[in-house]
Write a structure and sequence with these properties.
Blueprint: H1 2-5, E1 19-21, E2 24-26, E3 32-34, E4 41-42, H2 55-66, H3 71-80, E5 85-89, H4 95-104, E6 109-114, H5 117-123, E7 129-133, E8 147-153, H6 159-165, E9 166-177, H7 183-189, H8 198-206, E10 210-224, H9 226-235, H10 242-246, E11 253-266
Parallel strand pairs: 4-7, 5-6, 5-8, 6-7, 8-9
Antiparallel strand pairs: 1-2, 2-3, 9-11, 10-11
Helix pairs in contact: 2-9, 3-4
The chain binds S-adenosylmethionine (SAM) and zinc ion.
S-adenosylmethionine (SAM) is lined by residues 51-53, 61, 89-93, 95, 114-116, 119, 135-137, 153-156.
Pfam families: Zn_ribbon_RlmA
Domain 23S rRNA (guanine(745)-N(1))-methyltransferase N-terminal: 10-44
Organism: Ammonicoccus fulvus
Length: 270
Amino acid sequence: MLGDVVDLLRCPHCGSSFVLESNGVTCPQGHHFDRARQGHLNLLRGPAGANADTAAMVAARAEFLLAGHYRPIAALVADAAVGLVAVEVGAGTGYYLHHVLDRLGPGSRGIATDVSAYACRRSAKGPRTGAIVADTWAGLPIADGVADTVLAVFAPRNPGEFARICAPGGRVLVVTPMADHLAEVRRARGLMDIEHDKHDRLLASMTTHFSHRESRPLRYDLDLSPHEVDLLIGMGPNAFHADASNASDPAPIRTTVAVRLDVFEPQRWR
Ligand SMILES: C[S@@+](CC[C@H](N)C(=O)[O-])C[C@H]1O[C@@H](n2cnc3c(N)ncnc32)[C@H](O)[C@@H]1O
Ligand SMILES: [Zn+2]
């Protein structure tokens, strides 16, 4: 609930802290934000960009994740989490954040941010979770140094902002696909390839603000029904390319999940 995390939030206009009210939050400068009926708070300074997941994409993601296909990824992330405050950016349904909070225990709390209000409607349902509509690239409406664990799972990153919100002794957990992630699905359905230099670019961008502590690769096979393949395609960036999602091949597919968790720590001299 919003009340669990309101002390960790900052006004996107003036940077002040908020007072919680029955219908939303207000800062001392009088900037007011209504809480949505579904429980989330929209702290965007402008309209949501074209990169926000649609209602259909979020619904596909929720159904696919509920089936447990990515539970090993959630366990990998939860194993690496520390502290009591977790922030997941580009959180989607909040699936990974909710696993992390479960692992960190009843004293923990979390903020799920996403530029998609449809995603925040889902993440707001998690226990001890405040869901905030925010654009990671525009700056996070979160106080300095409060996040023990920052998560970015298949989501856009902003290393400068991660460094600002990360607590001393905290860490940033980034999950990215490896080159052969879902290769069989990509081949069968003619989808976009994963760039081969993705990991190098991640390390180069994050090590401007963080030390790279470790990489934990995870690889396993998934057997997917044709419907599950459709969900997988519908929830991902390929959903933006109608041609790819229409190229329907009704066969079940055995495919490889190949992802990597990278753990980053704030640089000691900062
Ligand atoms: C591939 S999904 C991953 C969602 C979630 N982390 C998961 O793995 O289930 C990427 C998410 O990032 C969100 N997103 C895209 N651009 C964003 C931005 N600039 N700021 C915040 N969220 C963004 C999308 O709306 C979407 O929910
Ligand atoms: Zn304000």
